[in-house]
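Backbone geometry tokens:
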Amino acid sequence: MRNKRTELTINHLERNDGVPFDASWFENSQINRSAIERRTSSLGGRRTVKKEYQAAWLLKAISCIDLTTLAGDDTRGNVIRLCAKAQSPVRHDLLEAMDMTDEPIQVGAVCVYHNLISFAKEALEGSNIPIAAVSTGFPAGKISLEDKITEIKKSVAAGATEIDIVISRDLVIESKWQELYDEVALCRKACGEAHMKTILATGEISTLTKVAKASMVSMMAGSDFIKTSTGKESVNATLPVSLVMIRMIRDYYERTGLKVGYKPAGGIQKAKQALDWLILMKEELGNDWLNPELFRFGASSLLGDIERQLEHFVTGAYSAGYRHPMA
């Protein structure tokens, strides 16, 4: 297992400080939906990994999870439980069987609402796991820009080291690109040293072309990550939308030399789905993006299914889902 595992270490990257607004970077973008869907529909059949290679990829996937709880009934106890699992995401006996007990396997971050940041900070003390907070009127974003800025600053002051903002979707729908740039840039400034993930809520954007343009504008304004969804829309992360956003990340990198991260969120519950996204990232952006500084899954139940698949790799049998705490 050890000599076949994927690398779990993180490279420290230059942050994206953004660039001046320039509509020429995206105004002529046109996305061919049928070509995008054809490319992503072939992914599962062309690329598969099995046995110890699959186990290694799944351990990589765990390191890229933003372990999330964004339920209306969240409590201090929920958050403490989540943080305990974040620090020990795989049972010790499974790690021992895979000869991985000396590896620092943990999730990419813990993601919570603002009022729960203090509980996460308490539970994660002594670890290096980032705390991500959803902000700016999550999930709808229907608050004033002034209130969005205030909310970001409060979350950073409370201990959040990553901020997931939601854009005003009407600016995308109405093609108000300069206004979108200004809003995201002000949010980026409010984040200070905290990294900012910009949620596009792609399920509420009518065309892939507008998804592409919103992606580019968000990166130009200084987003450290671009993210598909809040997880609250009727349609969340999909491979076609991901391919569009990933290719805009590549375009931005080729123009600026700056690497922006990507986060699909919502509806990713199975280990097989996680592998599809990792393979897509590897094929489109390369190995540099296969680490938690540049790629995250926004998920909660995904970890439970991955651990279940790892148990199958070790024992040859599937266990019941209820035996895994995050299933």
About this structure: The beta strands are 65-68, 109-112, 131-134, 162-166, 195-199, 225-227, 261-263, 297-299. The radius of gyration is 19 Å. The mean pLDDT is 93. The first helix runs from residue 33 to 41.
